[in-house]
Amino acid sequence: MSEKPARPVLVTGASGALGRQVAAALGARGWNLVLTDIAPFPDAVPATARFARADLEDGVAILRLAEGCGTILHFGGVSTEHPFESVIGPNIKGLFHIYEAARRERARVFFASSNHAIGFHERTTRLDADCQLLPDSYYGLSKAYGEMMGRLYWFKHGVENVNVRIGSSFPEPTNARMLSTWLAYSDLVELCVRATLAAKTGSCVIWGASANTRTFWRGDARATLGWLPRESSDAFAAQVGGVVSTDPVEERYQGGAYCAIDYTRNEMAPRDIF
User: Fold this and answer.
1) Spatial contact of 16 and 78, defined as CB atoms under 8 Å apart
2) In this structure, are residues 25 and 48 in contact, taking their beta carbons and an 8 Å threshold?
3) Of 32, 40, 195, 234, which has the most beta carbons under 10 Å away?
4) Residue 207 falls within a domain, yes or no?
5) For residue 266, is it within any domain?
6) Beta strands in the chain (DSSP E)
7) DSSP readout, 37-92?
8) Residues 34-76: tens digit of each pLDDT
9) How far apart (Å, rounded) are the C-alpha atoms in residues 93 and 75?
């Protein structure tokens, strides 16, 4: 019999690519789920779940959906690079509503952060989880802000949160960079399970990547959760290891193509980090 949390779990962004994977897998385990998204749910709703459309910017709706929940798996919001005015509402104001709901319900937050919160670190640097935040885009900036909001709510209100810097979560890696950043769906689901069921988390950071030997990252809190990724990009190395772009900015930095969007610096300029 699979482990189940004592209280319902709210999954935001449930209609998105990752939310759908999580909803299906946890539903198959018989978890009591509350699913929400601004878009309709495209699949059959699991028998132990209910779905309600809601906008993250509607604080009252979020409070109602979170009633009685012990964990909020927060995948909602703008999930790719967009103009700042498009990002700020769902990703910043919306996250505030998530944390206010978590504070009221004494719930834990799983925050789907991103590698784009640290994207301007060079690929030659192997990072620990306490590295400097160097967002590569407005999207990445919103994720860096979200991690800081988690720290605020932990230190001020005792709201536990797990900040997962998701690398590249797709069915398979498609280029050389993803050999470092790939997160298999099965590893993501198990990370959600461990983050929900862990006795304590505090406010911690996890690198959201599978057991890839080419990883850019090390030194996170996965032992606290008891999470051990089982998949690896290594099996795809021969297939995609030569797939690279012709953009020197994209290939220099961990954030890849997001670093090159609207990039105006002289690429040869020094990159000292203070």
Assistant:
1) no
2) no
3) 195
4) yes
5) no
6) 9-12, 33-37, 49-53, 71-74, 108-114, 161-166, 203-208
7) ESSPP-SPPPTTEEEEE--TT-HHHHHHHHTT-SEEEE--S--S---HHHHHIIII
8) 999 999 999 999 999 999 999 999 999 999 999 999 999 999 9
9) 14
Q: Which two tokens stand for residue 49?
A: 């779940």
Tokens of 255: 């954030």
Q: What share of the chain is helix, strand, coil (3-state, %, to 5)?
A: 40, 15, 45
Domain limits at 17? 9-260
Tell me the catalytic residues: 139
Q: Which of 114, 109, 154 is nearest to 9 (CA)?
A: 109
In a domain, 228, yes or no: yes
Q: How many domains does the chain have?
A: 1
- Does any domain span residue 2? no
Beta 9-12 vs 33-37: how paired, if at all?
A: parallel
Residue 153: its H or E element? helix 138-157
Alpha carbons 184 and 172: distance in angstroms, whole number: 7
